[in-house]
Amino acid sequence: MKKTSSAEKRSKIKAVRRIGAPSGPRNADRRRGVLIEAARTLFVEKGYEATTMDEIAAAADCAKGTLYHYFSNKAELLQVLREGFESEVMNRIRLRVDSCPVDDWQGRIGAWIEGAVDAYFEMHALHDVVIYGPGMPFRNAMADAQITRYLTRLISDGTKADAWKVDDAHWTAVVMFYSFRGGCDEAIMGTQRTEDIASKLNDLFSRILGVGV
């Protein structure tokens, strides 16, 4: 039986590699990141609908075939950006909350507010693209979002610790979340001062939870 030489093996490997795929995992990850960042910039600047796959490839300085190797369409890019946005927001919130003593429940709620408000103001342009873009309505996107589930757990754990009395943690978290969103949007529209939002939300959340009033 004829043995396959090393050169023939390498040739076969190259033959099955998809056109446009850079060799090596590090180069592949780097290229994918460049494409995602190019899509993010264009979606924010031009809007999702107005941006084309050709423009994304050009902005990333790569061949169109390379783009299609990683993403079949704009919807896939939008989903990746949506997941990345949610992860970044949650990382900021968790860092704030985890810095509080485990038994400081009001402090942990306040940390959630500060982390969420800071992230919203800093990334609201991307938020508008990934949340209000094509796909499911906003109400569906937020129904099971990490940020809402995390707040629900905080409220539920605080109830178990007798920090407050809440019968329905999920309902309370949803009401508080929409209060947070509305408060931030008012500041973005100029009807409230940005620097006052976290404090006002902290007062409101305390009243909703029935503590510190």
Please tell me about this protein's structure.
With 213 residues, the protein is mainly α. The protein has 2 domains: 18-72, Orthogonal Bundle (Arc Repressor Mutant, subunit A), CATH 1.10.10.60; 81-209, Orthogonal Bundle (Tetracycline Repressor, domain 2). The protein has helices spanning 6-16, 25-46, 53-59, 64-70, 74-98, 105-132, 138-143, 146-160, 169-188, 197-209. The longest helix has 28 residues, at 105-132. Residues 9-22 have low confidence and may be disordered. Residues 1-27 are annotated as: Disordered. It comes from Desulforhopalus singaporensis.
Tags for this model:
213 residues, mainly alpha, Arc Repressor Mutant, subunit A, Tetracycline Repressor, domain 2, elongated, DNA-binding, DNA-binding transcription factor activity, transcription regulation, transcription cis-regulatory region binding, coiled coil
Structural class: mainly alpha
User: What characterizes the major β-sheet?
Assistant: none
Specify Rg, calculated over alpha carbons: 23 Å
CATH topology of the largest domain: Tetracycline Repressor, domain 2
Q: What string, H for helix and E for strand, traces the elements in order?
A: HHHHHHHHHH
Q: N- to C-terminal separation?
A: 86 Å
Low-confidence stretches: 9-22
The CATH architecture name of the largest domain reads: Orthogonal Bundle
Q: What is the number of strand segments?
A: 0
Shape: elongated
CATH superfamily of the largest domain: Tetracycline Repressor, domain 2
CATH class of the largest domain: Mainly Alpha
The averaged pLDDT comes out at 86
Helix content: over 70%
Q: How many structural domains can be distinguished in the coordinates? A: 2
What is the percentage of strand-forming residues?
under 5%
